[in-house]
Amino acid sequence: MPNSSSLTQFLLLAFTDRRELQLLHFWLFLAISLAALLANGLILSAVACDHHLHTPMGFFLLNLSLTDLGCICTTVPKAMHNSLWDTTTISYMGCAAQLFFFVFFLGVEFSLLTIMCYDRYVAICKPLHYGTLLGSRACAHMAAAAWATGFLNALLHTANTFSLPLCQGNALGQFFCEIPAIVKLSCSHSGYLRELGLTVVIACLMFGCFIFIVFSYVQIFRAVLRIPSQQGRHKAFSTCLPHLVVVSLFLSTATFAYLKPPSISSPSLDLVVSVLYSVVPPSLNPLIYSLRNQELRDAIRKMMTTCFLRSNKLHLLQNTHCMISGAPEKP
Questions:
Q1: How many angstroms from the chain centroid is the CA of residue 80?
Q2: Where are the beta strands (DSSP E) in the chain?
């Protein structure tokens, strides 16, 4: 069996062996990628261009959109390439880079979701202290901490995973380079326990963040229930509950993927679980947590209307210029 020093590539798991279904997976992932790029691109443009969105929530939405784009662009393009060209290979360095950026963006994203939950808690439960607790410097520090924590987490996981001696072949039972799939190829019991311990620590931290999110939303709901307007209560609940669903889905599937016992592992189950936590949340976040924001929707509508009017004005000027330049000269 090859060891880690002689490996030059890994074999990823194909979604199916049938060519028709491979092309169907390609078009499905292409649609998901384009939808995510369009939605997150609109959010980034709106937050950057509209000064009304230069708020703590707008700042965190911008960071969240960047991480969503990073998550999608890390795993989906390679899966699309393999489905389109009927191949399953990925280089050793490409696999290491994919694992690093995937863990990095996911870690940053969950940290940002926790921070954004804190933003909503302060805005609703402690509005008088909002400017103090969430000033521009505090927001910058929290965002920097989220990115730095994600980088450190990804660096530790990647360095530990690819330092393991691999002697079980090079076939990964996954459509992208995932830590459990690579650890299965290891023949080092101590290295496996080290990675398991690191994963348990990270899982405990993520569970602590989830408890904080639930506690914050309990306080938010208690404050919202005191709002006399039924429309205001409905708006708050419709914004909070989908966010909790996405966070719960991400946490449950990621924890199950990393900590499930080997006895219940199967290629089809691993594939479904990995799609649920690696592709679905980054794709749904723009719709559930960003585009439901009324101010953001108004800013996007205003930006698109302005671009449309400018395009029509430019087209009209070009037509006028052509008509003038093509007119006969006066005697």
A1: 18
A2: 9-11, 89-91
List residues bridging with 229 in a β-sheet: none
CB environment 227-265: b (16+ within 10 A), e (fewer): eeeeeeeeebeebbebbeebbeebbebbbebbeeeeeee
Amino acid type, 217: Y
The single residue listed with the structure tokens 């794709």 is: 283
| pTM (2 d.p.) | 0.82
pLDDT tens digits along 155-182: 988 988 888 887 777 888 788 888 878 8
CA separation, residue 279 to residues 82, 147, 151, 241, 253 (Å): 17, 20, 20, 20, 12
Q: Distances in Å between the alpha carbon of 287 and those of 179, 230, 273?
A: 29, 23, 21
State what percent of residues in the chain have pLDDT above 90.
9
Q: What's CA 302's distance to the chain center, in Å? A: 26
- The pLDDT-based confidence of 291 (bands split at 50, 70, 90) is low
Q: Could you tell me the two tokens for 210?
A: 């989830």
Q: Give how far Cα 149 sits from Cα of 141, 179, 202, 228, 299, Å.
A: 12, 18, 11, 41, 31
Q: What is the mean pLDDT of residues 284-301?
A: 70
- CA separation for the pair 195, 183 (Å, rounded): 8
pLDDT digits (tens, 9 = 90+) for 232-264: 677 666 667 766 776 777 777 777 766 666 666
**Do 13 and 89 meet the contact criterion of CB atoms below 8 Å apart?**
no
Give the helix/strand (H/E) hosting 91: strand 89-91
3-state secondary structure of 166: strand
In contact, 139 and 56? CB cutoff 8 Å: yes
pLDDT in tens, 12-70: 877 777 888 888 888 988 998 888 888 888 888 888 887 777 888 888 888 988 998 99
Q: How far apart are the first and last CA of the chain?
A: 90
CA–centroid distance for 134 within its chain: 24
The Cα diameter of the chain in Å comes to 95
Q: Are strands 89-91 and 9-11 parallel, antiparallel or unpaired?
A: antiparallel
